[in-house]
Every structure is written in C-alpha cells, then in structure tokens.
Amino acid sequence: MTVLLTHSFVGLVPPWIDGIPITLHYQTDSFKKLCEWFSTEDRSHLINIHMILPITNMQIALNQLLLSALGTNNKSEAIDIIRRWIWIFKQSSLKNFRIVGFSTDGDPRHMRAMRLVTVFFATLPNIKSNSYTNAFHLKIPKEWNWYFLSDSHLFLWFQDAANVCKKLRNRLLSRTINALSYMVLSFC
C-alpha cells in the first residue's frame, strides 16, 4: 500500500530506534527500489494497535480512540515494548494526557516487559520507571506481606482476560500441544 502525498509505502517492517518505528522509512519514487524492498525486507504480517479509552466520572461510556497502528513481524523484544510504552507516556504527558495504564494479551514479551517495569523480582539497569516524578505512589499496608511490588509505578498493567482465555482455549485444544514445555519455557 502506498501513501500518495509522501511516496511512502506500508506493509514492510520499519527499523526501530528505542522501541519506536522510524516513520516514512520506505519512501521512493522508484518502482525498482520498491520491488527490491519487497524481495529483501521483512514484511509485516501482524499489526500492533494502541488504543486510548478515556476515563470519565460520568455514567456515559466514551468510545475508544486509535492512538497508533503499526505493522510488525513480531520480532520485538521486551525492552522495545518498555521503551515504546515510556515514549507513549512521555508524549501524552507533553499534551496534558495522563496514561493510567496499559492492557495487553498474554504475549510472553509483554508479560516480561510488565514484570521488568514493575520491578517484580527483576530490575532494568538503564530504565527506572518508578523514579519519575509523576509516578503513582501507593501506600501499602504493613500487613500486606504478600505484596511484592514496589510502592511507586509509572503506570498500571492489565491483562485482557477475554483474549488470554481465548488463547489458552485455542492452545489447549490444539492437536500438537505439549503443555508442560509450553507453560514452563515460555514464561521463563
């Protein structure tokens, strides 16, 4: 697919810098160059969508808004996801929007990203998401000896329960399931 005004093409996976895809990377007026890209570059077979659901104190339900949609080959790492979330958070803060949290399915990369950002038995040496001045600060009761997360978070995390249940159902009903290796190895 082409965007006529910029002579840019979508359908190919753009390179990433700090978890953010380079916009308008595939621009050309040359059909030969386009053919070369489609024979040598990764094509995006999946789409990664970021939606915004406004929170309101009124009883009416507001519609979701599309923030971004980008093609992917699903080869990103947890650190790319973390950088993208922090970039989205910073950009929205500049426009006076407060991101409260992110919701995702049970993809292992997203789960690992959540675990690393929440400092749940692991930390990142270069990204300290709980050190931001606009982070949430929770007052945790002393009797909550089961609560292992820190008391400061940049944003909250939610799992899309319907999507997780659908994935679990489909994988459990698969003819080629090897449940023990899948459950243990994919979470590590």
What would your notes on this structure say?
The protein has 188 residues and is an alpha+beta fold. The chain has two domains: 1-75, no CATH class; 77-188, no CATH class. Helices cover 31% and strands 19% of the residues. The protein has five helices and ten strands. It has helices at residues 31-40, 78-94, 108-117, 161-172, 179-187; strands at 2-3, 8-9, 16-17, 20-21, 46-52, 65-72, 101-104, 136-137, 152-153, 156-159. The strands form five sheets. The protein has a two-stranded antiparallel ribbon. A hairpin with a 2-residue loop joins strand 3 (16-17) and strand 4 (20-21). Helix 2 (78-94) packs across helix 3. The model has no long low-confidence stretch (mean pLDDT 77).
Short description:
The chain is of the alpha+beta class and 188 residues long.
Helical content (DSSP H or I, runs of 4+): 25-40%
- What is the quaternary state of this protein? single chain
**Main β-sheet description:** 2 strands, antiparallel
Count the DSSP helices: 5
Strand element count: 10
> Whole-number average pLDDT?
77
Q: Strand order within the widest sheet? A: 1-2
Which stretches are poorly predicted, pLDDT < 50 over at least 5 residues?
A: none
Number of domains: 2
Per DSSP, what share of the residues sits in E-state strands of 2 or more residues?
A: 15-25%
What does the radius of gyration come to? Answer: 20 Å
Broad structural category: alpha+beta
Give the N-terminus to C-terminus distance in angstroms.
Answer: 38 Å
Question: Which of globular, elongated, flat, extended, rod-shaped describes the shape?
Answer: globular
